[in-house]
Amino acid sequence: MTRILSTREEFGRTLVRLGEMSRDVVVLDADLSSSTCTRMFADRFADRFFNMGISEQDMICTAAGMSLAGKIAFACSFAVFVTGRCWEQIRQSVALPGCNVNIVGTHGGITVGQDGASHQALEDIAVMRAIPSMTVIVPADAVETRKAVEAAAWYDGPVYLRLTREKLPIIYPDEKRFRIGVGTLVRDGSDVTLCGIGLMLHQALEAAALLQTEGISARVLDLATVKPLDEDLVWRCATETGCVVTAEEHSIIGGLGDAVGEVLLRRHPVPMERIGVRDAFGRSGSPQDLLEYFELTPAAIAEAARRAIRRKAS
Amino acid sequence: MRHDAQSPRIRDPEQLREIARQMRVSIVRMIHHARSGHPGGSLSCTDILTCLYFAEMQHYPFQPYWPARDRFVLSKGHAAPALYAVLKHSGYITQRDLDRLRQLGSILQGHPDSRRCPGVEASTGSLGQGLSVAHGMALAIRTLPRRPRVYVVLGDGEVQEGQVWEAAMSAAHYGTDNLCAFVDSNGLQIDGEVGRIMGVEPLVDKFQAFGWNAMEIDGHSIEAILGALDRARAFSGKPTAIVARTIKGKGVPLFENQVKWHGKCPNDDELALALRALGEP
């Protein structure tokens, strides 16, 4: 029986552990501390938690100032606000001076669900990737979230960490190693490589199981660090399987698909298919209905894999 | 000079006026040499920066990363020449650095870059962000034993940015009294008079309404600036805003109160005129 855990709650618990380890860890939030789970840190370390109110721009720059004075800052809100509302503040005050600010966006992607388009971040990975020196991480379960948050804290430089609202099944053992910029081979296979992040890694694993019933052997990669991407792993898998499918809960513009595509174009062009939201805003609905509406399902990934394999043969 | 030497704390207004004059000469010369830059807003905040670096702040130019130093953030980053002049005159950087302003590979970028230049505390240039950054620093260091202070200079056009008022709200909310903000109120912005483009007054009332200790002074009176800094330091429980009424291009009659000198480089003749006005042979 697979355990299902909230990545947000694991994030909150990890912050508390980091707070115990170092007095330099500070956390800022913009009035969403119960949703982002930074409330756990606030309850424990009131003097190191700063609720900045509903003002993401001020929050980001305040975090930058704290970082410039030697703190390890976490600035947290919903993914759509913490990357979009203050993008230029992140560029100018965080990334340009190389601040150790960890920007954490929870509620990323379409599975925010009922709240609809205004709250569904589908462009956050693209806009964060575009900023020089920014690291972008999208963990796929609570274990990877914990490791990624720890790695981000000790990494000297700006990091964007994207989490989901929905709970995710645990796929990694507690002793999993996480290193920024290193992907994980989650399932081996020889006919096609499926690359996933976050929730879509789970969809890719289900797709691989579907394909197996048809005699197709699919390899599955977790490319949690979208930037810097594990280029060598992508290249090696493209070489060995001959075609690639990417899957992300994000616009197909500028996200994981484009990051993988850039590597393939430069190093080893093979047939490639992208699963993601096709240049559209989200909308209200249950998470499951939305995944089906936007074709972010195991069946859609499996179909894309069949297309890629056909293109490889022709 | 000893390498642990603290920057001098000068209280004599005459000496400070002479330093400010030399800084203005450096500003005009470096912009002329670089062939571009912003003279107007650099000259309007020169007296404020002089008082901060030579009378008020505790800092060690040869130990620019001393954790308990007082800090300065130039939120109106386009006045970089004024910051570079004061860094040079206090010993962080050299004349050779000033001569390479805005050139490829220089530590002196067109707008301040904290990663490249010692003594530059924050990267600015995009307006409206420096008050938040300074507030973050002030919050982070206010628990240090000597309780260092953070100073920031904003432009009066800059306060049109909404984020300035987000920061004004949060600094008051956290009672960050080791934060002191100057508004270099020279009345002009690129497109014209601040009051005509987008009125910002009454600034003192606005800061007071936001919960700040706020006052208005003549931003070119050394005595007034020193007095305001004394009052800011003595005030506890609230951040302080000092609205400094200034003249854009101050010290060079050719530039004074002229919008066109916001971001214009003087030619050789204009440089000669400016230097003569500043009392240089």
Commentary on this structure:
The complex is a heterodimer of chains A (314) and B (281). Chain A has 314 residues and is α/β, with parallel strands linked by helices. Chain A has 2 domains: 4-169, Thiamin diphosphate (ThDP)-binding fold, Pyr/PP domains (Rossmann fold, 3-Layer(aba) Sandwich); 184-313, Rossmann fold (3-Layer(aba) Sandwich), CATH 3.40.50. Chain A is built from 13 helices and 14 strands. Chain A has helices at 7-21, 33-36, 39-44, 56-68, 79-84, 87-95, 124-129, 142-154, 199-213, 231-241, 256-267, 287-293, 298-313; strands spanning 4-5, 25-29, 49-51, 72-78, 101-106, 135-137, 159-162, 168-169, 184-187, 192-196, 218-222, 225-227, 244-251, 272-277. In chain A, β10 (192-196), α9 and β11 (218-222) form a beta-alpha-beta unit. In chain A, α4 (56-68) packs parallel to α6 and α9 (199-213) packs across α13. The longest helix of chain A is centred in the C-terminal third of the chain and has 16 residues, at 298-313. Chain A is globular, with a radius of gyration of 19 Å. The model of chain A has no long low-confidence stretch (mean pLDDT 97). By secondary structure, chain B is of the alpha/beta class. Chain B has one domain (14-277): Thiamin diphosphate (ThDP)-binding fold, Pyr/PP domains (Rossmann fold), CATH 3.40.50. Chain B is 40% helix and 12% strand. Chain B has 11 helices and 7 strands. A 5-stranded parallel sheet of chain B has the order 1-2-3-7-6, with helices on both faces. In chain B, α6 (130-141) runs parallel beside α7 (162-173). The radius of gyration of chain B is 17 Å and the shape is globular. The chains are: A alpha/beta (314), B alpha/beta (281). At the A-B interface, α4 and α6 of A face α6 and α7 of B.
Q: Topology of this protein?
A:
The complex is a heterodimer of chains A (314) and B (281).
Chain A lengths: L3 E2 L1 H15 L3 E5 L3 H4 L2 H6 L4 E3 L4 H13 L3 E7 H6 L2 H9 L5 E6 L17 H6 L5 E3 L4 H13 L4 E4 L5 E2 L14 E4 L4 E5 L2 H15 L4 E5 L2 E3 L3 H11 L2 E8 L4 H12 L4 E6 L9 H7 L4 H16 L1
Parallel strand pairs in A: 2-3, 2-4, 4-5, 5-7, 6-7, 10-11, 10-13, 13-14
Antiparallel strand pairs in A: 1-8, 6-12, 9-11
Helix pairs in contact in A: 1-8, 4-6, 9-13, 10-11
Chain B lengths: L12 H22 L4 H6 L1 H11 L14 E4 L5 H11 L4 H4 L31 H12 L8 E6 L6 H12 L5 E7 L2 E2 L2 E2 H4 L5 H7 L3 E6 L3 H13 L5 E6 L22 H10 L4
Parallel strand pairs in B: 1-2, 2-3, 3-7, 6-7
Antiparallel strand pairs in B: 4-5
